[in-house]
Design goal:
InterPro entries: EN-1/SPM, Probable_transposase_24. It is built from 14 helices and 6 strands. The chain has a two-stranded antiparallel sheet. The chain is mainly alpha-helical and about 450 residues long. It folds into 3 domains: about 210 residues, no CATH class; about 120 residues, no CATH class; about 45 residues, no CATH class. Helix 10 crosses helix 11. The protein starts with about 35 loop residues before the first strand and ends with a helix.
């Protein structure tokens, strides 16, 4: 089984430069990846786990058993170049992460490569994908693992704080010693001591919380999609309506109750929607039939412009990259074609993601070329060192034995006549000729090459 490749978490190495976090030396944490993954009331669980204390998850996120027949595996498809379309993939990834979590790994980057490979192999027991798509599947899998690990640890920490009656992250150490059903207590305690209770981590946590709570319209940003991505919601709507949908439709579906037919879920979404509709009326008139399917300039203005946007556009999750939106506003006020502001089926984020992938690919190639140049420089340096060593050796040999070295014979020269002044531009020194000793070094080198 894969457990044999993992070993003790404290001895595993990671590819990043940060020093690994270790569990106490007196602890004995055994990996649980060799246990069978079974389907309990809450999805995948380790064999022997107390099913009675599990909470039932929502239907779409229910974990699944790896099929024994490889032909019965589900084939994965990727939406928008960033998420898996199939239901239950995310929950399966979470359960795999939990079963392989045997080290002090506060982030995905901290997990050793051999453990990631074991997780990837286990993931392959549940799903199929075209061989040519494996790089893309691996990339989306890594992205999903990174996000789900972060969410899972955040949720576990919040749950523990609630159980301990802790309301401030500063008091997180009060949660030490609490048993977590999927994580050894030793690892839990080390995470608290070395990560979550540190000043730097808590400062970042406070800053992130402040950013989430700070909204121009006086409310916390919300949506009704739950754990389902906006791209998955888009696909579901298109299956229901049997037609392409547009961004405003998706926004109402994900920010209104009752599947888009009720009230807005928060104040900000209502204000943005009202501003957008008002801007369209000012630009195109009150007749909605004259309005474009989506006006990126009007939307950008409604959400507060570039100042209110970091990497993603409010209202659409990761579907629309901020750069794509604002580039569209500078090139056209409105559009009705399959571009960044057309039907959402055009997945504009895909184009931006592809550009980002090209940039990453070019950066990787540049890094590879830089490494090659560095290796060449090192090789040149090695050759220079060898040359210097050779010259030193030759000088030493000439000093000791130069006067006794005979000139090359006819056989040395491949059967040709002995080199003369007429044929070579110089005369070989006679043995023991003191006045020609200055040429011995050159004579020896020539003799050495001929030899």
């Amino acid at each position: 089984m894969m457990a044999s490749s993992m070993g003790n978490p404290g001895n595993q190495t990671s590819t990043n430069n940060d020093p690994p976090l270790e569990v106490p030396s007196n602890s004995s944490i055994e990996p649980i990846v060799n246990e069978t993954l079974e389907l309990g009331s809450g999805g995948l669980s380790t064999a022997g786990e107390d099913v009675a204390r599990q909470r039932r998850t929502r239907g779409p996120t229910l974990g699944r058993i790896a099929p024994e027949d490889a032909n019965k595996k589900r084939t994965l498809t990727i939406l928008g170049d960033s998420v898996f379309a199939e239901k239950g993939v995310s929950s399966t990834i979470v359960k795999i992460i939990k079963n392989y979590f045997t080290g002090v790994w506060p982030t995905w980057r901290k997990i050793p490569d051999d453990v990631k490979e074991a997780m990837w192999k286990k993931f392959g027991e549940y799903f199929n994908w075209p061989l040519q798509e494996e790089p893309n599947v691996r990339r989306v899998w890594e992205k999903t693992c990174k996000e789900r690990l972060k969410d899972t640890l955040n949720g576990e920490r919040t749950k523990a704080m609630k159980e301990a009656g802790v309301t401030n992250i500063i008091d997180i150490k009060k949660c030490k010693g609490m048993k977590r059903h999927w994580m050894p207590t030793e690892i839990w305690d080390v995470l608290i001591d070395t990560v979550w209770s540190t000043e730097s981590w808590q400062n970042k946590s406070k800053k992130a919380l402040a950013n989430r709570l700070t909204e121009k319209e006086g409310s916390i940003t919300k949506h009704t999609s739950g754990s389902r991505s906006f791209l998955a919601t888009q696909k579901l709507m298109e299956e229901e309506l049997q037609r392409p949908i547009h961004y405003p439709e998706l926004f109402e579906r994900t920010h209104k109750r009752s599947k888009g037919s009720g009230d807005f879920v928060d104040n900000k979404s209502k204000v943005v929607s009202d501003k957008y509709q008002s801007t369209l009326s000012e630009k195109y008139g009150d007749n909605t039939s004259d309005h474009p399917e989506f006006d990126p300039e009007a939307w950008a203005s409604s959400i507060g412009g570039k100042i209110a946007t970091r990497t993603h556009v409010y209202g659409f999750g990761t579907m629309v990259n901020s750069k794509a939106l604002f580039d569209a506003t500078s090139s056209a006020a409105a559009c009705t074609t399959n571009s960044v502001c057309g039907p959402s089926t055009s997945t504009p984020h895909m184009d931006v993601s592809l550009n980002d992938d090209r940039i990453v690919s070019l950066e990787q190639k540049l890094e590879s070329l830089t490494d090659d140049v560095s290796q060449v420089k090192n090789a040149v340096g090695d050759i220079s060192d060898l040359k210097n060593q050779f010259q030193i050796m030759m000088s030493f040999m000439m000093e000791k034995f130069g006067s006794n070295i005979p000139p090359p014979t006819k056989e040395d020269l491949g059967g040709k006549k002995r080199a003369t002044k007429k044929t070579q531009g110089r005369q070989w020194p006679r043995r023991g000729n003191k006045e020609n000793q200055s040429n011995v070094h050159d004579d020896f080198l020539f003799h050495f090459v001929c030899w």
